[in-house]
Specification:
There is one protein chain. The longest helix is centred in the first third of the chain and has 23 residues. By secondary structure, this protein is of the alpha/beta class. Helix 6 packs across helix 10. It starts with a strand and ends in an 8-residue tail after the last helix. Helix 7 links the parallel strand 5 and strand 6. The strands form 3 sheets. Strands 1-11-8-7-5-6 form a 6-stranded parallel β-sheet, with helices on both faces. Strands 3-2-4 form a 3-stranded parallel β-sheet, sandwiched between helices. Strands 9-10 form a two-stranded antiparallel sheet. The structure holds guanine. The site of guanine (GUN) has 9 residues, from strand 4 and helix 6.
């Protein structure tokens, strides 16, 4: 039987509508409009599209956004100066430095320089530490978006074996960290697999929930998927001008119980969670992880 398609686009639209109501209520109470500053360095076309989509989503939700575009040859010090200005600007609640950054800039130095209270990506080490300890301030957008997809499609995560393929700081590591927490929508038994894992295919085939975040087109084949597993595809790979995920969609969807498409699965959820974090930042509150 073919898998249920998890419609991330529709779920993200619902979340954005909920957030628009919350943003309007917050504005009515406080007079404050949440404001995101997006920083885009260089002219990577894919990054420009992502940032534009994030800004459009802000606009639709009643969140202000300002784009700071810097040349590809911007120095690390110039970028750090801008981040420091934004850190000091009381009208800016969230700061997002779109990755990847040009090679002359050390990404970690920039991510570390963002004020932890404005770190709507959830990349600052203080915020990663808070997640590890189960008291999050900002949840990283893609893992949080995936958790919301699971919650809102009624997938039982408690006690489930969740296998994460990939160990990036943006997706793989925080995904596992989030799902192992003692919390609603988590409590999973987590296994990380990566490029040095010996028997990755066999481990993946034991997953109740398989999260593919390795950045290799069509890497996950039907043999790596347990019947009726939930398969979450984080990959966005461009192959012959077509976007494909990390999962070989057609054969895997014959085996899986549910699967996210690319595009229209995880991507829109990442943006919805960025909006949620921007509202959280404006409120100056810690993250509400319940929904
Ligand atoms: N590049 C790819 N994904 C992301 C993301 O979630 N946040 C930022 N800042 N850059 C990215």
């Amino acid at each position: 039987m073919a898998a249920t398609i998890i419609d991330g686009k529709a779920i993200a639209a619902t979340i954005r509508e909920e957030l628009a109501v919350d943003v309007a209520a917050f504005h009515a109470d406080s007079g404050i409009t949440p404001h995101l500053a997006a920083v885009l360095v260089g002219d990577d076309p894919a990054s420009a599209v992502y940032v534009r989509n994030k800004q459009r989503a802000c606009e639709k939700t009643g969140i202000a956004s300002t784009l700071h575009r810097l040349d590809a040859d911007t120095s690390q010090d110039q970028l750090l100066d801008l981040v420091n200005q934004l850190n000091a600007d009381a009208d800016i609640h969230g700061i997002l430095c779109q990755l990847p950054l040009p090679e002359q800039i050390r990404e970690q130095a920039v991510l570390d320089s963002v004020s932890p209270d404005k770190d709507v990506d959830g990349f600052h080490p203080e915020n990663v530490g808070l997640i590890a300890q189960g008291r999050p301030r900002f949840l990283p957008c893609t893992p949080h978006g995936i958790q919301q997809l699971l919650i809102r499609t009624g997938v039982e995560t408690s006690g489930a074996h969740l296998v994460v393929l990939g160990r990036s700081d943006i997706v793989g590591k925080p995904m596992g960290l989030l799902m192992v927490q003692k919390a609603e929508g988590a409590n999973a038994t987590v296994t990380f697999c990566h490029s040095r894992t010996r028997n990755l295919a066999e481990i993946a085939a034991t997953a109740d929930i398989l999260v593919a975040a390795i950045g290799r087109p069509n890497f996950v084949t039907a043999e790596m998927v347990k019947p009726v597993a939930v398969v979450i595809d984080v990959g966005i790979n461009r192959v012959d001008d077509k976007l494909v995920g990390d999962v070989d969609f057609d054969p895997v969807s014959e085996i899986a119980g549910a699967i996210t498409p690319v595009p229209g699965g995880v991507g829109p959820m990442t943006i919805a969670m960025l909006l949620k974090n921007t509202l959280t930042a404006a409120r100056g509150l810690h993250a509400d992880t319940s929904g």
